[in-house]
Amino acid sequence: MTSFEEAETEETATCLHMTFYHPCQEDKMMFRCLNFCNREQVRADEMAKFGRDSNVCRYNLVDTRVSRIQFSLQFYRKLNSSEFCFEIKNMSKRTKLTVDQTELGYLNKTDLPWKCIICFGDYQILAEVQEGESVDYFETHLHLAKVPILQERCLPSLQPTPENGTTSSWFPAQGKSPIETDENES
C-alpha cells in the first residue's frame, strides 16, 4: 500500500460564514480585532463568544456600546441525527438581539437558521452555515461588508416588471430622471 492509500480520510468541518457591517466601521474601526483573512478552527466543545472583553470573547468588537459578552454561539448535533447546528444566545442585559424576525432578550437562545441576519444596535451580521462532517471542531470564516446587509437583501428591483413581461414606455430608461406631471393633465 502507498502512503496515499494509508492516509486517513479527510473530513470537512462545518463552517459558519459571518459577514459583518456597521455604518461607522471606516471611522471607528470596531472590527479591527477580527480576522477577516482566514478560516479559524474552533473546538466543538467551546462556546464562540462575541463582545468587547478580549479576556473572555474569542471575537472582539472594539466599541464601548457593545456588551462585554454580546452573544455566544454553541455548536451541537441534533438528538438522533447526524445534522450539526448552532445555537445563538443573547448575553447582553442592555441590548436585544434579533435573529431574522426573532427578538432575543437577555439569556434567551434559539437555533441559528442556515442563513439569517443577526442584528443588535447598528450591527448587522449575515450568518450562513456550510455543512461539514467533523465532530471535533467547526470553522468560522469572517467577511466585511461595505454596504448594509439589510439594505442589500431587501432592496426592491429598481425597474418594475409589468405583468405581461414586456417593458413599457411608461417607465423611464435607466439613467434618465422621471418626469413629473400633474394627474389632471392629459
- Please give the share of residues in helix: under 10%
Low-confidence stretches: 154-162, 165-179
Strand order in the largest sheet: 2-12-1-11-10-7-8
Instruction: Give the percentage of residues in beta strands.
Output: 25-35%
Task: Output the structural class.
Answer: mainly beta
Number of domains: 1
Mean pLDDT: 84
Main sheet attributes: strand count, strand direction, barrel closure = 7 strands, mixed
Family: Belongs to the TIFA family.
Biased composition (Polar residues): 158-171
Domain FHA: 49-121
Keywords: Cytoplasm, Immunity, Innate immunity
Describe the fold and architecture.
There is one protein chain. With about 190 residues, the protein is mainly β. The chain has one domain: Tumour Suppressor Smad4 (Sandwich), CATH 2.60.200.20. It has 3 helices and 12 strands, in the order H-E-H-E-E-E-E-E-E-E-E-E-E-E-H. The strands form 2 sheets. The chain has a 7-stranded mixed β-sheet with strand order 2-12-1-11-10-7-8, with no helix packed on it. It has a 5-stranded mixed β-sheet with strand order 4-3-5-6-9, with no helix packed on it. It is globular and about 55 Å long. About 15% of the residues have low confidence.
Summarize the structure.
8% of the residues lie in helices and 34% in strands. It has 186 residues and is mainly beta.
